[in-house]
Design goal:
TIM Barrel, DNA polymerase, domain 1, seven-stranded mixed sheet, globular
């Protein structure tokens, strides 16, 4: 386990001072990002990022290309994934780091999730049709450069047709839970995601908990093997950061951070690489067998 013994301050900005420049939450065209893995790594290098994790949604398709490109630029690379999970009515995202992406159960789960994503988007397109919004599924497929199709690709088509003005508007008006075109996702549970990541010798981390409103589940996740928590995220407030720093101390969790980079909007480019991570967390990711005391 990890220990954050020095948490005593009341301004979360203090914990980002002089940390290495890292981004541990990054998406590419392998899922719903705008840049290929190769382009994303090059951009990371240009931004002065030293440590990079590619964490595409429910897929490992971009990891080999990203690893090769990181080697070219001498960046420290962490293979990652972001599993979308559901517990009762609570949606949680579980990040996995430095795992064996060739592990059989990982490969089988990814294929299952990709098939479920296609089925979900087909149903969303049908729901939009009942609202008078005609979209051909092929239009959505064309937005996804690989098979891992998602809601953001549907949002991009809605933007192209002038139905919405932004990705956020598409989600808030049509695609989020409670909206008229929403379809529930395949229910991979957070405990299943934790189990798969650990079986593949990886480190599981809870992504952007401030967006999930499911803090009551954190003790259960810790019991099932959660090892870290994403404290620093663009959509976390300063108050959120303090709450999750305290939770990291209470449950002895590694502290991580990432921009959740997708690259479709200007704000993504501004945030990329601006979420810093404690050095000892990076050390743990590089060497999972080590057990450093985290001084934050």
């Amino acid at each position: 386990m990890f220990c954050n013994k020095s948490y005593r301050k009341n301004n979360a900005d203090d914990y980002r001072t002089d940390f290495p420049k890292a981004d541990l939450h990054v998406h590419t065209t392998a899922s719903d990002g705008a840049f290929s893995p190769r382009e994303t790594v090059k951009l990371a290098y240009q931004k002065g990022i030293s440590y990079l994790a590619i964490t595409d949604h429910d897929t490992t398709a971009g990891l080999a290309e990203a690893a090769q490109e990181c080697s070219k630029y001498e960046l420290d690379f962490f293979p990652g994934i972001e599993f979308s999970t559901v517990y009762e009515e609570c949606e949680l995202h579980i990040l996995g780091y430095n795992f064996d992406w060739t592990y059989k159960r990982v490969r089988e789960t990814v294929i299952q999730l990709q098939n479920a994503r296609v089925n979900r988007i087909e149903k969303m397109v049908a729901k939009l049709a009942t609202l008078g919004i005609q979209i051909d599924f092929k239009e959505v497929r064309q937005k996804a450069s690989v098979s891992n199709i998602g809601r953001v690709h549907l949002a991009l088509v809605l933007m192209d047709k002038g139905i919405v003005g932004s990705i956020d508007e598409a989600f808030n008006k049509y695609l989020n839970r409670g909206c008229p075109a929403f379809v529930p996702r395949y229910k991979l549970t957070p405990c299943m995601a934790l189990e798969i990541i650990q079986e593949a010798q990886g480190i599981p981390v809870l992504a952007h908990p401030g967006l999930s409103n499911c803090d009551y589940l954190i003790p259960l996740l810790v019991e099932k093997g959660l090892q870290g928590i994403e404290v620093f995220h663009p959509q976390h407030t300063k108050a959120d950061e303090l709450v999750y720093l305290q939770m990291a101390e209470k449950y002895h969790l590694m502290i991580t951070g990432g921009s959740d980079f997708h690259g479709h909007e200007e704000k993504d480019l501004s945030n990329f690489g601006e979420m810093k991570v404690p050095f000892n967390s990076l050390k743990k990711l590089k060497n999972p067998q080590s057990n450093p005391t985290l001084i934050i």
